[in-house]
Protein backbone atom coordinates (compact mmCIF):
# COMPACT_ATOMS: atom_id res chain seq x y z
CA UNK A 1 0.00 0.00 0.00
CA UNK A 2 1.40 3.41 -0.98
CA UNK A 3 0.08 6.78 0.12
CA UNK A 4 0.55 9.96 -1.89
CA UNK A 5 0.45 13.26 -0.07
CA UNK A 6 1.11 16.78 -1.33
CA UNK A 7 2.09 19.78 0.78
CA UNK A 8 0.86 23.35 0.22
CA UNK A 9 3.43 23.96 -2.53
CA UNK A 10 2.22 20.94 -4.47
CA UNK A 11 5.32 18.83 -3.73
CA UNK A 12 4.28 15.20 -3.52
CA UNK A 13 5.43 12.79 -0.82
CA UNK A 14 5.20 9.04 -1.15
CA UNK A 15 4.82 7.03 2.05
CA UNK A 16 4.48 3.26 2.06
CA UNK A 17 3.02 1.10 4.83
CA UNK A 18 6.47 -0.02 6.01
CA UNK A 19 7.52 3.56 6.70
CA UNK A 20 4.42 4.06 8.83
CA UNK A 21 5.01 0.82 10.75
CA UNK A 22 8.65 1.72 11.43
CA UNK A 23 7.66 5.20 12.60
CA UNK A 24 5.00 3.82 14.96
CA UNK A 25 7.38 1.23 16.40
CA UNK A 26 10.02 3.91 16.97
CA UNK A 27 7.53 6.06 18.84
CA UNK A 28 6.43 3.08 20.95
CA UNK A 29 10.03 2.14 21.79
CA UNK A 30 10.85 5.73 22.79
CA UNK A 31 7.75 5.96 24.99
CA UNK A 32 8.50 2.64 26.68
CA UNK A 33 12.10 3.65 27.46
CA UNK A 34 11.02 6.99 28.88
CA UNK A 35 8.48 5.34 31.18
CA UNK A 36 10.72 2.52 32.32
CA UNK A 37 13.73 4.70 33.19
CA UNK A 38 14.54 4.36 36.88
CA UNK A 39 13.40 7.35 38.88
CA UNK A 40 14.66 8.38 42.27
CA UNK A 41 12.15 8.01 45.05
CA UNK A 42 10.76 11.29 46.20
CA UNK A 43 10.89 12.01 49.89
CA UNK A 44 7.92 13.77 51.42
CA UNK A 45 8.67 15.47 54.73
CA UNK A 46 5.98 17.06 56.84
CA UNK A 47 7.27 20.21 58.46
CA UNK A 48 4.61 20.61 61.16
CA UNK A 49 6.37 18.89 64.06
CA UNK A 50 9.26 19.78 66.35
CA UNK A 51 9.54 23.56 65.95
CA UNK A 52 11.46 25.68 68.44
CA UNK A 53 9.65 28.77 69.75
CA UNK A 54 10.38 31.76 71.96
CA UNK A 55 8.13 34.74 72.59
CA UNK A 56 10.76 37.47 72.57
CA UNK A 57 13.22 39.12 70.22
CA UNK A 58 16.19 36.75 70.13
CA UNK A 59 19.12 38.59 68.56
CA UNK A 60 20.91 36.41 65.99
CA UNK A 61 18.13 33.81 65.77
CA UNK A 62 18.20 34.04 61.98
CA UNK A 63 21.69 32.53 61.91
CA UNK A 64 22.20 28.82 61.30
CA UNK A 65 24.38 28.12 64.35
CA UNK A 66 22.15 29.94 66.85
CA UNK A 67 21.58 28.01 70.09
CA UNK A 68 17.84 27.51 70.54
CA UNK A 69 18.05 24.47 72.83
CA UNK A 70 16.41 26.38 75.68
CA UNK A 71 13.43 27.35 73.52
CA UNK A 72 10.09 25.63 73.80
CA UNK A 73 9.41 22.74 71.36
CA UNK A 74 5.96 22.69 69.78
CA UNK A 75 4.03 21.54 66.72
CA UNK A 76 2.28 23.68 64.14
CA UNK A 77 -0.25 25.13 63.76
CA UNK A 78 0.44 27.36 66.75
CA UNK A 79 -0.69 30.87 67.63
CA UNK A 80 1.23 32.30 70.54
CA UNK A 81 -1.13 35.27 70.87
CA UNK A 82 -3.90 33.10 72.34
CA UNK A 83 -1.63 31.88 75.15
CA UNK A 84 -1.74 35.26 76.90
CA UNK A 85 -4.48 36.64 79.08
CA UNK A 86 -7.69 37.85 77.51
CA UNK A 87 -8.16 41.46 78.53
CA UNK A 88 -10.89 43.92 77.75
CA UNK A 89 -8.41 46.81 77.63
CA UNK A 90 -6.03 45.07 75.19
CA UNK A 91 -4.22 47.44 72.83
CA UNK A 92 -4.32 45.01 69.92
CA UNK A 93 -7.06 46.52 67.72
CA UNK A 94 -7.04 43.75 65.09
CA UNK A 95 -7.66 40.99 67.63
CA UNK A 96 -9.80 42.40 70.37
CA UNK A 97 -9.30 40.89 73.80
CA UNK A 98 -5.88 39.45 72.97
CA UNK A 99 -3.12 41.19 74.87
CA UNK A 100 -0.20 39.14 73.55
CA UNK A 101 1.57 41.31 71.05
CA UNK A 102 5.23 41.72 70.31
CA UNK A 103 7.84 39.52 68.70
CA UNK A 104 8.04 35.75 68.57
CA UNK A 105 10.50 33.42 66.82
CA UNK A 106 9.89 30.01 65.29
CA UNK A 107 12.80 27.83 64.17
CA UNK A 108 12.89 24.41 62.49
CA UNK A 109 15.92 22.13 62.13
CA UNK A 110 16.20 19.79 59.13
CA UNK A 111 18.88 18.45 56.82
CA UNK A 112 19.02 18.58 53.04
CA UNK A 113 20.95 16.17 50.85
CA UNK A 114 24.52 17.18 50.05
CA UNK A 115 23.73 16.71 46.35
CA UNK A 116 22.39 20.02 44.95
CA UNK A 117 20.27 18.10 42.41
CA UNK A 118 18.29 16.58 45.29
CA UNK A 119 17.67 19.84 47.14
CA UNK A 120 14.41 20.79 45.47
CA UNK A 121 11.83 21.91 47.99
CA UNK A 122 8.19 22.23 47.03
CA UNK A 123 5.49 23.59 49.25
Could you characterize what this model shows?
There is one protein chain. The protein is of the alpha+beta class. It is 16% helix and 17% strand. Strand 1 and strand 2 (12-16) form a beta hairpin. The model has no long low-confidence stretch (mean pLDDT 75).
Q: Give helix and strand order, one letter per element, not per position.
A: EEHEEE
Number of strands: 5
CATH superfamily of the largest domain: Galactose-binding domain-like
CATH domain fold name of the largest domain: Jelly Rolls
Low-confidence stretches: none
Q: Overall 3D geometry?
A: elongated
Quick summary:
By secondary structure, the protein is an alpha+beta fold. Helices cover 16% and strands 17% of the residues.
Topology:
Layout: E1 2-6, E2 12-16, H1 17-36, E3 51-54, E4 72-74, E5 105-108
Antiparallel strand pairs: 1-2, 3-4, 3-5
Structural features:
123 residues; alpha+beta; Jelly Rolls; 3-stranded antiparallel sheet
